[in-house]
């Protein structure tokens, strides 16, 4: 249970810097002399760092172990936040974004691979709910400082200090990870199927007379490859939606729907709060109702939220409601996509597909917000039609995953 709690705390830590930019950017851009739409140019730098981090993490974990990787990555995050706060130009700030991408990517892929093997729907949702707590806390902190007239740089320094404290906790707990790995005699990245509990085994033993043409495992491989590709696409769209709401909802509410800065800041925090509640509640319900049922409800909810954004350009209350509904609907989607990775691949390919999905989530978190940046530079109201298209795409991908029988 101690390692489960450390996993939750680690996801809390990587969320803190991730969600600050959306609220800080309108003030930050003035310091850097940038346009509003320039915020869309920032995520690709973090994405590139995250992808490189995902590719290297497997080797780094093999050398350091999970516990030390958590500690080192959190220290790197703290250093990146200090550089963010001290940045005199946009170029220097982008350096800090790259550092934060390296840090968050390493923690994300390592713990998601661990959770996909070891957790059920409730625990993996609680782990991602811990991310939401951090993601809700930091925008509220930035909003508080800005409302009292303090520079956007100060909350970055405050979060950097908190990251250093968390790094100390991870360093102390590193030995527990080592002990757990020693007891298992196998690392989560290279775990052999036969060493897992019986109920988690997915192997189907061959008979002595099995041939390549009648081997069920061989025959389902093409379908599983298709499922893996569709699952990656679903992750891209899902994380793109979440990141776009986190980054652009504040600007949409204030500039596109005419809502005051204070209420808009609270609405962004409300987005993360609703996501937290849905992961806690719906994640638990998924234990009994099944992951597919909860994911279906979430996909429909995303479409409802997107419709509300269109109404919100003339009815401000609907705009605020749309941000909250996005949080409620999106909450369990990404954790359950990670959990159901084992339905779309073999046991030996699980870690590689989780890493591919982690990289694709970073791509989605950059590409869709970038599209929003270009569109919202012309009109803040463009948030509504682009979000509607993304929500339709998410629903279609879910229906493809649900309709296909990818497991035999």
From TrEMBL:
Keywords: Membrane, Transmembrane, Transmembrane helix, Transport. The chain crosses the membrane at residues 36-57, 69-86, 92-114, 126-148, 154-174, 226-249, 255-277, 289-311, 317-341, 353-376, 382-401. It is found in: Cell membrane. One of its GO terms (cellular component) is plasma membrane. The keyword Methyltransferase does not apply. Residues 193-219 are annotated as: Disordered. Its main location: membrane. It comes from the Bacteria. Belongs to the major facilitator superfamily. This is Putative major facilitator superfamily transporter. It comes from Microlunatus phosphovorus (strain ATCC 700054 / DSM 10555 / JCM 9379 / NBRC 101784 / NCIMB 13414 / VKM Ac-1990 / NM-1).
């Amino acid at each position: 249970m101690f390692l489960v709690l450390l996993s939750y705390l680690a996801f809390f830590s990587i969320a803190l810097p991730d969600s600050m930019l959306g609220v800080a950017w309108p003030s930050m851009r003035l310091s850097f002399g940038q346009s509003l739409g320039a915020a869309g140019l920032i995520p690709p730098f973090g994405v590139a760092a995250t992808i490189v981090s995902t590719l290297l993490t497997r080797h780094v974990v093999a050398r350091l172990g999970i516990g030390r990787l958590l500690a080192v990555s959190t220290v790197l995050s703290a250093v990146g936040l200090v550089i963010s706060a001290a940045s005199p130009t946009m170029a220097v700030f982008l350096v800090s974004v790259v550092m934060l991408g390296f840090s968050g990517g390493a923690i994300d892929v390592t713990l998601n691979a661990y959770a996909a093997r070891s957790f059920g729907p409730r625990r993996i949702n609680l782990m991602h709910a811990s991310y939401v707590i951090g993601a809700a806390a930091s925008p509220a902190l930035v909003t508080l400082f800005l409302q009292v007239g303090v520079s956007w740089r100060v909350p970055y320094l405050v979060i950097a200090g908190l990251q250093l404290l968390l790094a100390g906790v991870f360093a102390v707990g590193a030995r527990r990870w080592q002990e757990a790995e020693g007891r298992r005699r196998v690392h989560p990245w290279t775990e052999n199927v036969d060493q897992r509990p019986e109920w988690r085994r997915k192997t189907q033993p061959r008979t002595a007379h099995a041939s390549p043409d009648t081997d069920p495992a061989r025959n389902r491989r093409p379908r599983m490859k298709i499922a893996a590709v569709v699952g990656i696409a679903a992750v891209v769209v899902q994380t793109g939606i979440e990141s776009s709401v986190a980054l652009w909802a504040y600007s949409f509410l204030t500039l596109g729907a005419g809502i005051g800065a204070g209420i808009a800041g609270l609405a962004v925090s409300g987005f993360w709060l609703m996501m937290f509640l849905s992961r806690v509640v719906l994640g638990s319900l998924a234990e009994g109702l099944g992951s597919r049922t909860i994911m279906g409800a979430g996909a429909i909810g995303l479409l409802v939220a997107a419709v509300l954004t269109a109404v919100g350009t003339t009815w401000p209350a609907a705009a605020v409601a749309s941000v909250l509904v996005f949080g409620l609907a999106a909450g369990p989607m990404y954790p359950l996509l990670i959990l159901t990775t084992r339905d779309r691949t073999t046991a030996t390919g699980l870690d590689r597909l989780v890493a591919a999905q982690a990289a694709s989530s970073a791509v989605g978190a950059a590409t869709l917000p970038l599209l929003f940046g270009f569109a919202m530079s012309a009109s803040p109201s463009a948030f509504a039609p682009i979000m509607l298209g993304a929500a339709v795409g998410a629903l279609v991908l879910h229906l493809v995953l649900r309709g296909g029988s990818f497991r035999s």
